[in-house]
Amino acid sequence: MRFEALHFADRLRVVNPEGDVGLVTLWSPWEAVERKLREVDEAILDPARSRVAAIGSLYGDGMYAMLCNLLHNPQVSHLIALGTQAGPSTTDDLELFFARGVEEDELLGRRVRRVPGTGRVFPHDDTFDVDRLRAGVGFHHLGRLSDPALPDGLRSLLADLPHADPSTLPPRISVALERDDDTRRQQPSDVLGHTVARRRPLDVWEELVVRTLRFGRTVSVGDGERIELLNVKAIVREPVADEPSALAAFGIREEDLRAYAERILDGAPPDGVAYTYGHRLRTHTGDTLAEVIGLLRREPASRRAYVALWDNTIDLHAEDGAATPCLTTVWFRIADDRLTLTATYRAHNLLTAWLLNVYGLMAVQRRVADALGLTAGPLTVISHALGINPASSRFALARDVESRWMRDDDVDRAAGKSSMREDPNGYFVVSSDGSDLIAEHRYEGLLVKTYRAQRADTIMHEVAADQAVSLISHALWLGGELRRHEA
User: Fold this and answer.
1) Ordered structural domains, the chain, with CATH
2) Cα–Cα distance, 295 to 128 (Å, whole number)
3) In whole angstroms, how far apart are CA 272 and each of 21, 92, 146, 152, 350?
4) Residue 127 to residue 201: CA distance in whole angstroms
5) pLDDT-derived band of residue 413, with 50, 70 and 90 as boundaries?
6) pLDDT tens per residue, range 293-318
7) Cβ atoms 295, 247 nearer than 8 A
8) 482: number of CA atoms within 13 Å, CB side?
9) Separation in Å, CA 32 to CA 13, 57, 82, 149, 381
């Protein structure tokens, strides 16, 4: 039986099609992996001598597709992982999958399968034979490329792992990746004009999913299609952790977010990857966070606390497909005695990266704020290209989020209650005195301006010219109240 990739064949490097070992390189770039494998043993990459059937990276949502490929190629009975992990622990999830399988679960009313004790969710598909995978594939994790034990460990595994009897191999199983059957219709909007401002990170993420699915344009990128909005501005008014139960409702684990937040402050040099955010922030050009703290201590009103993670000498000249930082800048500013942070991302995966990144930014913001004796103010994230991958295993979840979005209210997830969103521009008190309509524009009880006219249209035009309303829901309410009093 020869190796045949059922999914994402263009992202795999086939070595020996009749091999029985799959190499998983996690986040490590191919150049670093190839160099290390040649150091360990040239035979690993020689089709005539290698036991390795195929080599592929694994980050984001690729795990389910990889396991489907293994069901389609039962001759691959050993899986070896090596390299760097930058997100939630892929190898931990794989180890738990092979040790414990999956359990039945539900997300937003949809049946799914979850790897127990993890946030890893698979579609509910009976053709995906979990028991056969667990019985037929052995998993081994060797650590980072720089691990001193890796060369001997890899050589030993490739020499000693048992060979399967070709005559006993089960037939191939072809599992289709889940696709949404509904044809998406892009609603009209300015794809460069979307702003979302809500209390907590999860609140912002949920609305971003809705907006991107409703208004995003479909574009082709190097590895497929994306549904994309451009230059999206997202404001987290209260950058604190969400309730674990609220995160779990969307298949998101608090532990993964917390672990990512710890890693972003780690300035250790990259190991087998092109960069890490911690290294770019803390080591690449010095400890920029320490420099920011010193600057704002000396000059609290400074607007120069600006850190660039993008290095033109490296990133601008990277080859197509090479890893370059998505987080490009962070800017700190003290406003109203609180430390605000604004970050820009050149490209942003909304379903798998955005929330992780925000929790990392909150950790960076807290580090600087604590050193300055300040509290953390609003966190702003500007995503130049904010995208959803329709091939993601979380795409069905995203569609459920969008379909359930029926109101624009604020939600207290802990209490399970909704409340009317308050317009940051203030509110209106509408009345009439028998001859005129009166609309008082107020902010926290303070009278800002009084509008008076005989017709509702007149006041509505004046309010629009003053830009006194910022929320669509508020504008609709105000128009209705003026018409009611006019009648």
Assistant:
1) 9-168 (3.40.50), 195-411 (3.30.572.10), 427-486 (no CATH)
2) 56
3) 21, 19, 7, 18, 25
4) 36
5) confident
6) 999 999 999 999 999 999 999 999 98
7) no
8) 25
9) 14, 12, 11, 17, 32
Summarize pLDDT for 214-270 with one digit per residue, the tens.
999 999 987 789 999 999 999 999 999 999 999 998 989 899 999 999 999 999 988
Average pLDDT rounded to a whole number, residues 367-389? 97
State the amino acid at position 413 in one-letter form: R
Query: What are the structure tokens assigned to 300, written together?
Result: 């609290």
Record the tokens describing residue 27, joined without a space: 């986040």
pLDDT value of residue 180: 54
pLDDT tens per residue, range 477-487: 999 999 999 99
H-type alpha helices, 110-253: 130-136, 150-160, 201-215, 244-248
- Residue closest to 199 by CA, chosen among 153, 234, 233: 234
Report the share of the chain in percent with pLDDT over 90. Answer: 77
If one counts every other C-beta atom within 10 angstroms of the C-beta of residue 464, the result is 11
Cβ neighbors of 427 (< 8 A, separation 6 or more) are: 441, 442, 443, 474
Task: Look at the block and give the residue holding tokens 């907590």.
Answer: 200
Average pLDDT over residues 455-470: 96
CB atoms within 10 A of CB 164: 16
Of the candidates 444, 281, 301, the one whose C-alpha atom is nearest the C-alpha of residue 365 is: 281
The residues near 407 (Cβ < 8 Å, ≥ 6 apart) are 418
pLDDT tens-digit readout, 17-45 = 999 999 999 988 888 999 999 999 999 99
Checking DSSP bridges between strand 78-81 and strand 138-141, what pairing results, if any? parallel
